[in-house]
């Protein structure tokens, strides 16, 4: 059964002016999930106007009171977690336990940002003059454009929308076209919790129409974007011409180092979870395994044995390990990389094909795949594949391993398995990624530390934790002179 879902603008659920719709099908079964209104730049104009109007009062609404609304949101998400997780699996395919984790991440972020309503610390400093008080305070910028991908359809919007609104901004939110229903559920909860009309507006549709219109709208001073590199660079380029503040969270080519002293049971568990969770469609997925030659064979044997028995299927089945990938195009792109790797001389140790036996043929399934004997410069070891594929790259030493880890254009996440604390600290010192794990895989960030990557993964901003506030606010330095006379800084303080 299908419903028609509409945009949320100025506190009302409204159809696009286009009158057109688009469908989303379950990537595991091909069944229709729902039908959505398909928006145009005119809908973006209406959403921005509503957000701009709401900003006038929302910025003045006390931040602790904003936090109280966020606490209600978090509690409602807790109540509806299972329902939203099941819908997420239907919509984008990740297995149900991971979908629960995605909703949990939104819950954690919402509670965390609710508390920020009572902090949002600024600074006070002594003045160089008598009878004068100096401080700095955080201020919101206005309407935030929030553009998100499909792979963490509730977590990523929460990372952006919660810091945006707790600090007094209002929002125009465009989710990925593969996951609008999860976005709608999230916004429905905001509405139910009593968020005033216009503070968050939802506009559904394609990147070219809706995303572009947000990026280029003169009344949207900041854009928070997560997605692919090509789109992100395009967004940043167009936004820069309009002097906007832009945060980019882009791709990754994350690596796990396995040293000769590693606990191989632990490394095997960590690699399988990081490489094949969400069918490899995580920005932090372990798509490279940098293995010391003395453990390479043993490690690959273990990985192959386990990957071979992983169950593919509809993620709503609790016994399934690997769900579908998000679309037919994504499946083709992943499978094209298998041919690219083979042609480059990499050896397929396990998997290597599209899975279409029985019911799998109804959806978009790719076998968990491990390339062995990969060279660090090969395309499969350099480019983001975004599927259940990982490449084992043999190395002779820690120095060589670190060079391999750093030798890609991305810098999101990395990990090292070793029993030697000195090697662990060398990795922390010399690996240039935004996130680093010791004796764990490359995924599993917690919401209260900075999240983001170096080099091609982003443009220097970080999400999550208190640092998220740095993007969504700007500083105002305030000098209060209560001396009753003109006191000139740098001039009257000399004697
Ligand atoms: P995508 O770039 O195709 O789309 C992301 C969003 O941008 C979607 O909402 C899309 O509709 C919109 N968009 C597309 N064209 C646009 C345009 N011209 N102007 C404005 N918006 C436009 O990415 P995707 O396929 O949805 O997501 C997968 C990518 O996201 C991967 O590369 C992955 O690594 C990355 N990702 C990064 C992080 C991170 O934090 N670093 C997290 C998750 C995903």
Question: SSE layout and pairings?
Answer:
Layout: E1 4-5, E2 7-9, E3 12-14, E4 21-25, E5 32-37, H1 41-58, H2 63-92, H3 96-116, E6 123-125, E7 132-140, E8 143-147, H4 155-166, E9 170-174, H5 180-192, E10 200-202, H6 207-215, E11 222-226, H7 229-241, E12 245-249, E13 254-258, H8 264-276, E14 286-292, H9 293-308, H10 328-344, E15 347-350, E16 354-355, E17 365-366, E18 369-372, E19 389-395, H11 398-406, E20 410-411, E21 413-417, H12 421-430, E22 435-438, E23 454-455, H13 468-472, E24 473-481
Parallel strand pairs: 1-5, 8-9, 8-11, 9-10, 11-12, 13-14, 13-21, 14-19, 18-19, 21-22
Antiparallel strand pairs: 2-3, 4-5, 6-7, 7-24, 15-18, 16-17, 20-23
Helix pairs in contact: 1-6, 2-3, 2-5, 3-4, 8-9
The chain binds nicotinamide-adenine-dinucleotide.
Nicotinamide-adenine-dinucleotide binds at residues 147-152, 174, 176-177, 206-208, 211-212, 215, 226-228, 231, 234-235, 249-252, 283, 384, 386, 412, 453, 457.
Tell me the helix content.
25-40%
Tally of separate domains: 2
Low-confidence stretches: none
Bound molecules: nicotinamide-adenine-dinucleotide
Radius of gyration: 24 Å
Distance between the termini: 81 Å
Number of strands: 24
Can you tell me the CATH class of the largest domain? Alpha Beta
Which sequence of strands runs across the widest sheet?
15-18-19-14-13-21-22
CATH-assigned homologous superfamily of the largest domain? Aldehyde Dehydrogenase, Chain A, domain 1
Largest sheet: 7 strands, mixed
CATH level-3 fold name of the largest domain: Aldehyde Dehydrogenase, Chain A, domain 1
> How many helices?
13
């Amino acid at each position: 059964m299908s419903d028609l879902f509409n945009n949320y603008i100025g506190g009302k659920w409204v159809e696009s002016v286009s009158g057109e719709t688009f469908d989303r099908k379950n990537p595991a079964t091909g069944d229709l999930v729902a039908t959505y209104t398909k928006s145009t730049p005119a809908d973006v104009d209406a959403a921005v106007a509503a957000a701009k109007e709401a900003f006038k009062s929302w910025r003045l609404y006390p931040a602790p009171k904003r936090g109280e609304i966020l606490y209600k949101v978090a509690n409602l998400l807790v109540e509806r977690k299972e329902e939203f997780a099941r819908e997420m699996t239907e919509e984008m395919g990740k297995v149900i336990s991971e979908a629960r984790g995605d909703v949990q991440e939104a819950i954690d972020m919402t509670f965390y940002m609710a508390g920020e309503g009572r902090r949002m610390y600024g600074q006070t400093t002594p003045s160089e003059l008598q009878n004068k008080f100096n401080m700095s305070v955080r201020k919101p910028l206005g309407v935030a454009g929030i553009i998100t991908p499909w792979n963490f359809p509730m977590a990523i919007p929460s990372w952006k929308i919660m810091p945006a609104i707790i600090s007094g901004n209002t929002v125009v939110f465009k989710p990925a076209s593969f996951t609008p229903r999860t976005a709608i559920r999230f916004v429905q909860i905001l509405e139910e919790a009593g968020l005033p009309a216009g503070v968050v507006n939802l506009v559904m549709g394609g990147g070219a129409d809706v995303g572009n219109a947000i990026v280029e709208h003169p009344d949207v001073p900041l854009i928070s974007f997560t997605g692919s590199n090509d789109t992100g660079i395009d967004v940043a380029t167009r936004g820069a011409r309009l002097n906007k503040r832009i945060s980019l969270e882009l791709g990754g080519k994350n690596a796990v180092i396995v040293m000769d002293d590693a606990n191989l049971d632990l490394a095997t568990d960590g690699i399988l979870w990081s490489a094949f969770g969400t069918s490899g469609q995580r920005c932090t997925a372990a798509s490279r395994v940098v293995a010391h030659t003395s453990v390479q064979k043993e490690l690959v044997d273990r990985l192959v044995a386990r990957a071979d028995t992983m169950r593919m299927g509809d993620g709503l089945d609790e016994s399934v390990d690997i769900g579908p990938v998000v679309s037919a195009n994504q499946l083709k792109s992943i499978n094209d990389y298998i041919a690219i790797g083979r042609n480059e001389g990499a050896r397929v140790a396990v998997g290597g094909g599209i899975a279409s036996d029985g019911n799998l043929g109804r959806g978009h399934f790719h076998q968990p795949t491990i390339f062995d004997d990969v060279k660090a410069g090969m395309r499969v070891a350099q480019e983001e594949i975004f599927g259940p594929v990982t490449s084992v790259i043999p190395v002779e030493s820690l120095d060589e391993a670190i060079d391999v880890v750093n030798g890609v254009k991305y810098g999101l996440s990395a990990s090292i398995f070793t029993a030697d604390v000195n090697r662990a600290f060398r990795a922390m010192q010399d690996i240039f990624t935004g996130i680093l794990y010791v004796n764990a895989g490359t995924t599993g960030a917690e919401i209260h530390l900075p999240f983001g990557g170096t080099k091609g993964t982003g443009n220097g901003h970080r999400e999550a934790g208190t640092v998220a506030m740095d993007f969504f606010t700007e500083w105002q330095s305030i000098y209060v002179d209560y001396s009753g006379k003109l006191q000139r800084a740098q001039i009257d303080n000399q004697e």
